[in-house]
Design a protein that fits this description.
D-Maltodextrin-Binding Protein, domain 2; 12 helices; six-stranded mixed sheet; 4 domains
Length: 425
């Protein structure tokens, strides 16, 4: 029996069962009837399972918001995940035009996959892992690594949102959230299909659960997360809401030094990170009021994210210790060449903000005077024009542009154009 099941579930022999429903309905009445239900990932739209439900299974699903089915082989209620641990949260239930089949839109919230079969000891993410060859005589397993699946990107709401959206736009990824929706489709993109807007604190957990494939969040959120050991940092991006430098997680207060004892009260946006500094003091979580807690003398110290530190100084507070640098990071569960390139493209948009593209023309006699004046990432681009003059392009740091222009014009440069550009790879 087990050998037959193995051939059925893992073999390449076609053994299609056209009699499953006929055999089930023999001797059954309408009250005990079933209907098929297609189970689909609510975001990726991947079809995960085709199963069956009866009234009892549908009632359970509606009440508990968990996908439940009726097992036709065991003739009993089948709550997905009770045995395998692969739980499917119900997002929506749809019915077809003739009301004889259902569609479950689900979010996998626990476990590794949706199918009861395994590959290399891991539950498969869906039940459709083989294709019928067009010769009609054989099945072929689909190798998941050969499928370029479009990914779901999670980006932060709140303080970082505007800067991240601007960075993505410069990289050629334009996102338009309509109304109050927190999800948007990304059109004409070879890597991403959708984007979800969520709190930066929740992005690391969403990556590990598979709700999103890639996330952009603060490194502080990664280090504070319970999921930190399961996450890979693809790229660090040095910017914050107000500057081009990475912010810092700091300990601050009115005192001149840190005192750690049981009577000390600490207000912390990062309880785990605060625990690295304070082993005996009482730490309480703070939701954005950390600085006020210390200013009002309700707490002795605060642990928070600090950008320029100006607000702390304005209130007479001192930074006593820097716990960590907290750049924005691109994260995923595993590193792939495509994600490394994505991270590099985002980094290039930040580098491009610091530089300008300079174009100019010059006569042949002026070329040898102008070229030594020019900086470049590699070397200036020089092209001979039809009239014998030269067209020259170079990239210069923004803080050097003015001084460079002051030198180029007297040296014989004409038609000088200074342009911003979006990326520098």
């Amino acid at each position: 029996m087990k050998n037959k099941e193995n051939i059925l579930e893992e073999g390449d022999k076609i053994m299609l069962d056209f009699c499953k429903l006929r055999d089930y309905f023999i001797g059954q009445d309408q009250e005990k009837g079933i209907m098929p239900v297609v189970v689909q990932h609510w975001l990726t739209k991947e079809v995960l399972i085709l199963a069956y439900v009866n009234r009892e299974a549908l009632k359970y699903s509606l009440r508990h918001h968990i996908a439940a089915f009726w097992s036709t082989s065991r003739n009993e209620l089948w709550v997905k995940g009770l045995t395998s641990g692969c739980v499917l949260k119900l997002v929506e239930i749809r019915v077809n035009c003739e009301q004889n089949s259902l569609l479950y839109l689900v979010e996998p919230i626990k476990g590794e996959g949706a199918c009861h079969t395994k590959e290399n000891g891991v539950y498969r993410k869906d039940c459709f892992y083989r294709r019928i060859l067009f010769n009609g005589k054989q099945l072929e397993k689909i190798k998941e690594e050969n499928i370029m699946k479009k990914l779901i990107l999670g980006i932060p709401s709140g303080n970082l949102n505007a800067k991240v959206m601007e960075m993505l736009k410069k990289a050629g990824i334009t996102i338009n959230f309509t109304g109050r929706k927190f999800e948007a489709i990304i059109n004409n993109n070879c890597l991403f299909s959708r984007v979800i807007l969520m709190g930066s604190r929740k992005i690391p957990g969403a990556v590990t659960r598979g709700t999103i494939d890639v996330g952009i969040t603060g490194y502080d959120r990664v280090k504070e997360s319970k999921s930190r050991k399961k996450i890979k940092v693809i790229q660090k991006l040095n910017f914050s809401k107000n500057s081009s430098q990475a912010p810092r997680v700091v300990v601050f207060g009115f005192r001149k030094k840190i005192v750690d004892k049981k009577s000390i009260m600490v207000s912390a946006e990062y309880e785990r990170l605060a625990g690295k500094v304070f082993k005996r003091a009482k730490i309480e979580f703070s939701e954005g009021t950390t600085e006020a807690d210390v200013v009002n003398r309700a707490f002795d110290y605060g642990v928070c994210i600090c950008d320029t530190g100006q607000s702390l100084r304005d209130n007479g507070l001192k930074i006593l210790q820097v716990i960590m640098e907290a750049p924005v990071v691109v994260i995923a569960k595993k590193v792939t060449p495509e994600l490394k390139l994505f991270g590099a493209i985002l980094e290039s948009t930040l580098e491009a903000e610091k530089r300008s593209l300079i174009k100019l023309d010059c006569a042949a006699l002026a070329k040898d005077v102008i070229l030594p004046l020019l900086p470049a990432v590699d070397a200036p681009t020089v092209n001979r024009l039809s009239n014998g003059d030269y067209a020259i392009e170079t990239v210069a740091p923004n803080n050097e542009v003015f001084n460079l222009l002051m030198k180029l014009k007297p040296a014989g440069a004409t038609g000088i154009i200074v342009q911003d550009f979006k990326a520098l790879l």
